[in-house]
Sequence to fold (455 residues):
Amino acid sequence: MAKRKLRIMVAKPGLDGHDRGARVLARCFRDAGYETIYTGCHQTPEEIAAAAIQEDIDCVGLSCHSGAHRYLFPQTVKQLRELGGDDIQVIGGGVIPTADFQMLYDAGLKGVFTPGVTLPDIVKWIEENIVPNIRD
Amino acid sequence: MEITKKVRDGDVRTVSRLIRNIEDRIPGAKDTIKHIFPHTGKAHVIGFTGSPGAGKSTLIDCLVAELRKRDKTVGVLLVDPTSPFTGGAILGDRIRMQRHALDPGVFVRSLATRGALGGLSKAVGDAIHVLDAMGKDFVIVETVGTGQQEVEIINHAHTVVVVLIPGMGDEIQAIKAGILEIADIFVINKADRDGAGKLYRELMYMLSMADEFPGGWKPPIIRAENMFAADSFGKSLHELTDTINAHYQNLVDKHLLGDRILRKAMLELNEALHNAILDPVLTELVETGDMRRMADMLLKKETDPYTLADEVAGKYLRE
Fold:
């Protein structure tokens, strides 16, 4: 039996159009051997969650540089749970004050990454923390 | 079977997981397909192919919107290439159609080729069955950006739309075999650009050289201009949608639908036989180390591939 391939989604919720980081990450995930879906800018949490369910994603990576992460990240987790995606892990990155980390973890985010974290660090974190779901 | 019912009821989570299991070749998925198979054959399958950047995804996005206006439900399968080096992929077609993400009448799924060469993924055939069984009226398949030889879409689609853009080559390109031969409908996209008229004439010239067309269907050429010019683009989109429907109707009227389906049936049977007969042999050869031993013999020029293949066949085939 072939090994499960990790499917990961990179998404930008809200009105922030700074997508260079998201694109670099998508490329990095491709190079790490993951099937990477990028959904583009200006997505609502509802749209991101619906897409993640349709694509059977293992992990959603949210990117936000506008400061709206305190609303958008938890909202995305909530929408995912409502659609039955309890097993889909959510991580987030961007310009995020350390003071907000705990609040995001409490809201259900599995990891938070800020400027200074290297791409190999992120891939290593994913290898250690995200397991493709084997539920049939 | 529980899962079959969930698929037929259109449960999104079940459907997306089943397609994943097909891609990952989880044994249970094959059993599910066995149960689903009798419920397939109702959807009109449309294939979109053409070179990278021709505008396939954007055109599909607009077609989905148009079909939804006509109260039809749509499943979309988007194929993008897998990196031959890392096995990873960026599946980016979805960006063009995220506006349909919240519409329950639309299901969009991205697939990576995973090494398949015909412009599709091996899982596409079964994924079409799943969306068909899910009750979608239309299933739209977008191939990877294709060149000249990636024609596998004809084995899966009732209607093949080839999307072309001006400025890609001279008329010699138009008489080459391959992708231009499989079109049921041509779209000249970005037709407000230089060279659209020339491309149109070249296609007309190519089509005029054919003696006859199956079912008398001469592939229409639709020009689609800049999509931001709403009036003219809207007209092209209507024309495309009507032409797609007319093509399907022509297949039905001329009793040609069977030929299209037969092609897919042959392919699927071929693949299933391959999986059932050849794969176990290849797996055993790899696991026992025989494959490596035989490759070493080839490197040392002790024998040739055909002799080895005959020996293996002699061992496994009874008749």
About this structure: The beta strands of chain B are 44-50, 74-80, 89-91, 106-112, 138-142, 159-164, 185-189, 221-224. The two ends of chain B are 38 Å apart (CA to CA).
